[in-house]
Amino acid sequence: MRGEDMRSFRILRNWGQDELAEHLNQALGRKYTRPKISRWETGAERIPADVSAHLSPKRQPPRRDGALVLGFANFKGGVGKTTLSVNVADALARAGHRVLLVDCDPQYNATKLLGLPAAALFEERRTLFHALERDLGIADVVVRGPGFDVATSHIDLMRVETRGEPGAEFILKEKLAPLADRYDFVIIDAPPNPGKLTTMVLAAAHRLVIPVRTEPLDSSGLDLLLEQLSQVQRRLNTGLKVLGVVPNHYDARKAVDQILLGTIRDNLSAKFRVFEPVPYDSAFGKAGLMNQTVVSAWARSSGAKAIMSLVREIENA
Q1: C-beta separation of 129 from 156 below 8 A
Q2: Rounded to whole angstroms, how far apart are CA atoms 81 and 215?
C-alpha cells in the first residue's frame, strides 16, 4: 500500500488522521498517532506490513457464477454515460474486485478519458474491433488501465455495424464467455445510439444501467432504448434486467434541478429503480483532463462519494 492509497482509504470514509489512528489501534492493538499517519501518507515512513494488509481492499467473491456483466446505455448524448462507466469500473477495482471495462463505442471516449493510445493500439491490433472482427479473443486485446483491465475502442469499430451474418448480435457475448471466471465485473460502455453494436451489448449484459441528466426529460432517446431493450429481452436475452436509472449532473442548489429530479422519479420509478443522483461536480471534468477518475483524483469530492454509493448498490445486484 502507498501513502496515497492510505489517504484515499481514509477520505472515502470521511475520517481524519486521528480517526484512522484510532481505527488501527482498535483493530491491531497498537498505539499509533496522527503524526505517524501523516508520515505514512506523505511517504516519509514506510507503512508497516500489518497496517497495509489491514487497509488494503479485500477481494470479494462474485455474487454469481462468473462475472456480472453491466451495460451502461442511453441514446441521448451528454448524459455522462462514459464518465459513470469508467468511474464505476475504477471504484469497483478499488473495492478489491477484478474488473474489465469494455469500450464498445466507436467514439472511444472511455479509451480517451483513460489516456490510452487508441491509434497506437489499433496499429498493434489490440482493440475491441480486432477481437470482434478477427480470430482473436478479448483477452488478446486487453490492456491494463488504472487498476483494472480495458478493452479499448477505435473509430473503426463502426465497421462492425455492417456485419450481416446470422447471429452477429451474439459475437460480443461469445467473446466475453471465456473471461467469465477471470473477472468479477465486466462494465460495457455502449454507443449512444441504436444499432448492431448496442444490440450486442444488450445481448451480452446481465444488467443495464441507464444514466439520465436532470434536465427537461427528452424521452426520444430513452424511448428508443427501451424499445430496443424490449426486443432484445423477448428474442435474444431473456435474462437481461434493468438494474436502475442514475440521475446525473444534479445540482441540489437549483430549484429547477430539484423539480426535474422529481419529474424523473415520477416518470420512471413505476418501471425502474431510480438511484440517488450523482451531483454536478467540477471534479469530474478536472479528473478527466488529467486522464484520471474522480475516485482516484478527488476521493473526497461529492462526485466520488456518489460513485462509491452507487458501487455499493451494484455490489449487491
Answers
A1: yes
A2: 15
Helices (H), 210-301: 219-235, 255-268, 282-289, 294-297
User: Who contacts 24 (Cβ-Cβ below 8 Å, separation ≥6)?
Assistant: 30, 32, 51, 54
Instruction: Give per-10-residue mean pLDDT for the chain (317 aa).
Output: 85 82 84 94 91 73 74 88 95 91 96 95 95 91 93 94 85 95 96 92 96 71 84 93 92 89 87 92 90 86 90 87
Q: Quick one: cell of 55?
A: 487497509
Residue 247: HSE in the Cβ half-sphere, 13 Å Cα cutoff: 27
In whole angstroms, how large is the CA radius of gyration of the chain?
A: 20
- CATH of segment(s) 68-315: 3.40.50.300
The grid coordinates of residue 101 equal 471495462
**Residue 285 identity (one-letter amino acid):** G
Per DSSP, the three-state class of 208 is strand
